[in-house]
Amino acid sequence: MNIGQRWIAFMCGGCHALTYLILSQHPPYPVLVLAYVLAGLGNGIGLAAWNSYIGNLARSNELLGFMHASYGLGGTVSPLIATSMITQANLGWYDFYYVLLGMAVLETATLTYSFWPKTAQKYRETVHTEGTRNEGTRAALFVKPHARVVWLCAFFLLGYVGTEVALGGWVVQFMLRVRNADPFDAGMTAVGFWLGITIGRLVLGMVIPKIGVKLSLMIFIPITMGLQLIFWLVPQFHVSAVAVSLQGFFLGPMFPCVIVALTMLLPRHLHVSAIGFAAAFGGSGAAVLPFAVGAIAQAKGVQVLQPIILAILAVLFIIWLGLPKIEKRKD
């Protein structure tokens, strides 16, 4: 790392702040798309840096669960705030970005202040004591046995993130068209899903260290598959709403578990490269899988969501079994 966590913190928050400043001005559509590229850059920087940093701390399962729960909380609360601003206060959609701009400025200030002592020189000194400094992305991706772990985790996150975003994005349409729910109830189903993710990351994050990372997902994935079958095969709105919320609960801790697995299976000097690649590769699932589901839904109907999600979960279970044994961390 050539710039240190100090400037990583500034760049991460700065990308978010600049994005929301642009979007709050109600720009034309091409500018909006480019602004979101900048937001994605900030997200990518933050994912690699903070997952790697927290993954090396004591009680990393709980801390990562808390950090990623804040993501789920944002996914739960933000649509409610934006909807209220638009429908109750008669504001434009772009006015919501002033709220995000204020939060991004606070993010930039607090992160930069917190990591100000973390210079590039201090990071290199830490890494030098634990591994070879000239190893990086190439060693993580192409040198065995580390490459096997990184690629398995990357493909796991590809499927996981795609499942999370596809469910969160398409569940409203499924409830409207297949379960014949009214618009408000259908929207609350999505809120329940994201709330389940938030609570799952907080609650199960406390349980995972006691049973181990590897065993935890070997339990959570089959439970999620069972809930997916209930969601698919029981044609009752309330049953489907409860099932999808519980799916969120058990899906929630999977992303933090993968990050912890990477930090436990790889030497520290590969953590930033490996986690950055896996998170970026997995993040592409948020674009690819929902788009694929949408394309199929246009031709076959939104009910195709359920068997697709079930198949992806089965693949995730097989991928997870392919990882080496992960010892319990004694923090």
TrEMBL record:
Q: Does the keyword Cell cycle apply?
A: no
UniProt domain Major facilitator superfamily (MFS) profile: residue ranges: 1-329
State the UniProt keywords alphabetically.
Answer: Glycoprotein, Membrane, Transmembrane, Transmembrane helix, Transport
* GO terms under cellular component: endomembrane system; membrane
Q: How does it sit in the membrane?
A: Multi-pass membrane protein
Q: Which InterPro entries match?
A: MFS, MFS_dom, MFS_trans_sf, MFS_Transporter
Q: What is its main location?
A: membrane
Q: What PROSITE patterns does UniProt report for this protein, alphabetically?
A: MFS
Superkingdom in the source lineage:
Eukaryota
Q: Where are the transmembrane segments?
A: 7-23, 29-51, 63-84, 96-116, 149-171, 191-208, 215-234, 246-267, 274-298, 304-323
Q: Where in the cell is it found?
A: Endomembrane system
User: Could you cite one Gene Ontology molecular function of this protein?
Assistant: transmembrane transporter activity
Q: Which Pfam families match?
A: MFS_1 (PF07690)
Tell me its family.
Belongs to the major facilitator superfamily.
What name does the UniProt record give this protein? Answer: Major facilitator superfamily (MFS) profile domain-containing protein
Tell me which species this is from. Fusarium oxysporum f. sp. lycopersici (strain 4287 / CBS 123668 / FGSC 9935 / NRRL 34936)
